[in-house]
Amino acid sequence: MDLLLIGLNHKTASVEVREKLYYTLDEITNVLPEIVKLFLKEGVLLSTCNRTELYGVVKDESVRCEDIINFLISGKQAEGVVKHSHFYIMRSYDAVRHLLEVASGIDSMLIGDVQILGQVKDAYEVAVKCGVVGTLLHEVFHTAFRTGKRAKTETSISEGAVSVSYAAVELAEKIFADISKKKGLLIGAGETAELTAKHLVSRGIGELYIANRTIERAEKLASEFNSKVVKLDEIQDKLVEVDIVISSVAVNDYILNFSQVKSAMAKRGNKPILIIDIGVPRNVEPKVKEIENVFLEDIDSLEAIAKANYERRLSEIPKVQRIIDEELRNLIKWYDAHQVAPTIKLLRERFEEIRRAEVEKYRNKFSPEDFQKVDALTRSIVNKLLHTPTVSIRESSNGKPESERIKFIQFVRELFGLEQK
Questions:
Q1: Which of 58, 151, 190, 396 has the fewest CB atoms lying closer than 10 Å?
Q2: pTM, 2 dp
Q3: Which residues carry out catalysis?
Q4: What radius of gyration do the chain's Cα atoms show?
């Protein structure tokens, strides 16, 4: 299989390196046709925050991987930062297996990543729109889509929160069956708060408020997630109406203390409230947990949940690998058939072309009835002559290494002067 993979990812390059070689979908639309024109017959360029990988079928043996790598680096003006040592090169079924591992989420920085399959599909669709996807990459990437879908539906590789922010939202869903009818309050507007807001919104939180010392930062985050801003001195009043509070700010004193929460609970008629403290130092006075109908969790409990879920995902990797093995075997069968069937077809067409041309020379020597008999007789002879080589070609794909199968097919094509049309 003439498939080539050139790439770098979170295992071979730091974020400072990866961001230098990151291509947006619009950039890929512009650069991919040029890459294919220079080096490949067909190609797909996948670029995310954790990887940039080029999958392609090389034009000929003169194409050098070093030249492709140089082109990728220069295209982003990343000389001096991105080096050849950051890249890995894979070929044939090793490249396919890598893609299947990527699509199924087991090669991600976050095992079981649910976003990567969509990113792989986006990269493929851009390549299709550019007109640079041929038969091989079409089949390879659809195998990847099928593998990713099976990994998600047939295993638990993507189940359970493995980050603190996601664990906080998962915990909220366990306590409140339907968070679409609940209101949430985020205290803080940093990276953790942003991730938490993203998860809450994706899970359909009914209404979301954001409080932060820097009001501009809160407003920016609120606009991104269609939320409302609350001033820090308004937090106690908001406790009366919200159901979920997640705090993640760096403070020396408690943002919420026992008396504040006790007072708010009295005003809300002791309706249950979940308070999640993921700040370090802690943002909520631990004594708050003693108040009736207040569920208080801190970062330690969330990290324990995330760790348990992560270990559960790791245990699912062998199941995903079995799916990958199965899909890879199916692709190998397809590829073998794709190589063998056209060769047999060309061989038969070649012999039939010769037979017909020779028979036509003597058409006038026979009556119409006799000519039909000669035509049928010669066709039968050709079919019998082709039976043994046809069987041999088909059997060439059974039990032999790929390199031997390819050489045999090439030998047959050269021997009989066959050309793929």
A1: 190
A2: 0.69
A3: 49
A4: 31
